[in-house]
């Protein structure tokens, strides 16, 4: 199996708020996280079957069984501090 060579990136910014309104947040932390930025297709786990995994009728002896890795994913997080 080749190496995965994944590229993950994260960018964070802190936004302050003026203290003119009672009960308003003091600041906000905004974070953007992107996993597998280049959308590399890979198998997180793979092995050669010795048969019987899917039952005897499938004749899976010698097949490579794999679990594909996660495609490109983006997460945006907002934290408000009061």
Provide structural commentary.
The chain is mainly β and 82 residues long. The chain has one domain (9-81). Helix content is 0%, strand content 45%. The strands form two sheets. It has a three-stranded antiparallel sheet, with no helix packed on it. The chain has a two-stranded antiparallel ribbon with strand order 3-4. It is elongated, with a radius of gyration of 23 Å.
Order of helices and strands: EEEEE
The tally of helices reads 0
- Parts with pLDDT < 50 across at least 5 consecutive residues: none
Q: What's the shape?
A: elongated
Structural class: mainly beta
Major sheet attributes: 3 strands, antiparallel
How many runs of DSSP E, i.e. beta strands?
5
Give the helix/strand layout.
Layout: E1 9-16, E2 27-35, E3 43-48, E4 64-68, E5 73-81
Antiparallel strand pairs: 1-2, 2-5, 3-4
